[in-house]
Amino acid sequence: MDFYLGLVQIIGVHTLLGLSAYCVLLTGQVSLAQAGFFAIGAYVAGMLTVLAQWPLIPALAVSAIVAGAVACAVGFPALRVKGLMLVVATVAFGEAVRLFFFNFTYQIQAGTLHLGPHGAEGFRQIRYFPEHGWSTLDVVLFIWAVVVLVMAGLWWLDRSRVGAVLRAVGEDELAAQSVGINITAVKVSAMTVGGFIAGIGGGIFAHYTTHIEHAQFGVVLATFAIAYPILGGLSNVFGTLLAAVFIQGFLIEGLRFMGDWRNLLFGGLIVLAMNVRPRGLLDAGTTRALKRLFAPGKERSGA
Amino acid sequence: MLDLPVLELEGVSKHFGGVRAVDGVDLAVARGEILALIGPNGSGKSTIVNLICGLFPLTAGRIVLDGIDISDTPMHARVTCGVARTFQNIRLFGQLTVWQNLWVAQNSGEQRRQSFARRWLGGSRGARDEIERTLEFFGLAHKSNELAANLAFGEQRRLEFARALSARPALLLLDEPAAGMNAEEIDQLDNRIRKVRDDGVTVLLIEHHMELVMSIADRIAVLNFGRKIAEGTPAAVQADPMVREAYLGAPEAA
What we know:
The complex is a heterodimer of chains A (303) and B (254).
Chain A (H helix, E strand, L loop, with lengths): L1 H25 L7 H17 L5 H23 L4 H21 L4 E3 L2 E6 L3 E3 L3 H4 L4 H24 L1 H11 L1 H6 L4 H27 L9 H14 L4 H18 L7 H15 L7 H11 L9
Antiparallel strand pairs in A: 1-2, 2-3
Helix pairs in contact in A: 1-6, 1-9, 1-10, 1-11, 2-3, 2-4, 2-9, 3-9, 10-11
Chain B lengths: L6 E10 L2 E11 L4 E5 L6 H9 L6 E6 L2 E2 L5 H7 L1 E3 L12 H6 L5 H4 L3 H7 L2 H13 L15 H13 L5 E5 L7 H16 L3 E5 L3 H7 L2 E6 L2 E6 L1 H6 L1 H8 L6
Parallel strand pairs in B: 3-8, 3-9, 6-7, 7-8
Antiparallel strand pairs in B: 1-2, 1-4, 4-5, 9-10
């Protein structure tokens, strides 16, 4: 049972990570910096609850704000470059964050324990959940409440003019400028919101694993972050959720019985999925078909 | 106030390396007129439109809109100043609906001054009505939930025209709006351009379709090799020997 609850936790946190990349990807930017923002969120939230004894919710709020602020600051220089150069720039940023935490030590003595991040050894004893008597199920419910809130917020933004403008920039930057859209402001805003969400996700991740270290926040995690929205499709936030369930639940855990052959099949299935559904698992056509199925005669989009 | 031209180009030049695409052009567009810019292929017409909307910087000269120098104003901000355009090769947001294409283009100064919530989150009734009226005017109301990419070619041209008007421009730049259209569609286009002008929008029209140009232009300016070679009423321009030469070649010595 705990195994499955653990899996549900992972899926929830990775959905948040995927949603952070979704925001940025809507504007047509491929960012591999999301793992960096996630790491910042994890360390900030962990230090606040462990070292400063903050309650969880304010700690998560601050970690989201810090990660969002860093994303905003990184967004200005990074979004001046496009395409592959942006990928390189954001990978460099993500690695810089990881290496910062590789070298970062800030510990305090609490009885016989040393608490706080300790460089390469990582940040152990982030024990907010066990200390406050949260069961695994409580944690699962908390994570998914946050996921639902974030998804509802993004869904609503997506339906508003914000979503239309983000997509307009993602589709044709020149045309967007020609109708009066300030594309730098739009891209930096998307990056900031993405960083904010990654910060929340990272903060939660730090608390349910209780132990974080730099190696968890490398390029692999960044690749997962963009894989979710790309595989899920950009027509709405549910695609990202679906992809997180598919990758974490099916490809990674479901295929564990295959041992080391799993990774091979994992890669193959991703390639297959992208070939069969090039616009993502949940593309515009499927979304329309589902709408018709559940609300016949009431199909509306846009307005 | 009425004497002040909407747009003035003063010695405007654009050189791409050694190529003088536009070379010292002076041009004034009066308020409320339809000025057609014509010339053979490669004479610099589209480059002028791109310079006015701010796609790339000037090599020399200045661009004045309503008495304000906008030569260094970024592209998106010029829309807020009152310049909107269409593209020779249509550039719609194909994966957005017809409605959304107009929605994202509501970027006039007045529209920008709405509160954040109204402008970005809710969408005011005024903004909605405006989109509906524009779609109605362009005969696209029944397509409002269609993806722009799925429209027929003529509808896409109309939608781009409609999108440009969404920012309530003072000056509208139309870059070959009749290209690829049939006679009936050109007729409708003719009517719509006149109607838009009557509503107070100044129009700078680039067009190869001479019938349309001669029918609606109040004045015509002719470009050749990046320079302005003639300017005047349609009749005067048609009679100009320089213009005839540019289009037909120099008359052979008898």
